[in-house]
Amino acid sequence: DQQVKQNSPSLSVQEGRISILNCDYTNSMFDYFLWYKKYPAEGPTFLISISSIKDKNEDGRFTVFLNKSAKHLSLHIVPSQPGDSAVYFCAASAGKGGATNKLIFGTGTLLAVQP
Amino acid sequence: DAGVIQSPRHEVTEMGQEVTLRCKPISGHNSLFWYRQTMMRGLELLIYFNNNVPIDDSGMPEDRFSAKMPNASFSTLKIQPSEPRDSAVYFCASSLLSLAGPRGAQDTQYFGPGTRLTVL
Lengths: 115, 120
Prior knowledge:
The complex is a heterodimer of chains A (about 120) and B (about 120). Chain A is mainly beta and about 120 residues long.
């Protein structure tokens, strides 16, 4: 049973345009969400995160939106650059009070930014 | 600063052989995670340790898989005997769990480069 779902296995976007990557979750206990980026032959690297007490977090070209009622989050990249081409993983945590920091990952979305 | 170190980077072995994957977490981190990446299931958590103690091994697929963390700077994941369906990329990650620290720092995990395992 996949608690974190990324239903689009791939996405292709033109350079300079907006990339929107989506993620849905089923466990209402999740209260912290992260996005990781992964290049081939490398490990995933942390990109941006959001707590459930917020609905938006921005870091430069990257913005994550959280809709708790829909159990949905999205990552916006504006403007998209060819170097953004990678696999993006959504992850969620239910670590109440720091009792655990176990992450549940989605299956990933391969983003291709065309020059 | 050195990140998470994994060895070997690539491992090719024959079915039935024992395979040992190694991980050195970031110095000072007290949580260590083993993941397996496959196309179908993405990043699956196999097991994780807090302060060298296994906390959750519910993701370990079978008794053929075992993991140890004898000290804060070293962990192994062993597969014995290995099977072709074990072929995947195995990642190790570490983080700092501190009840007094900010939530974000607790949840952010730092990954190693992975070990690509091929079982023939």
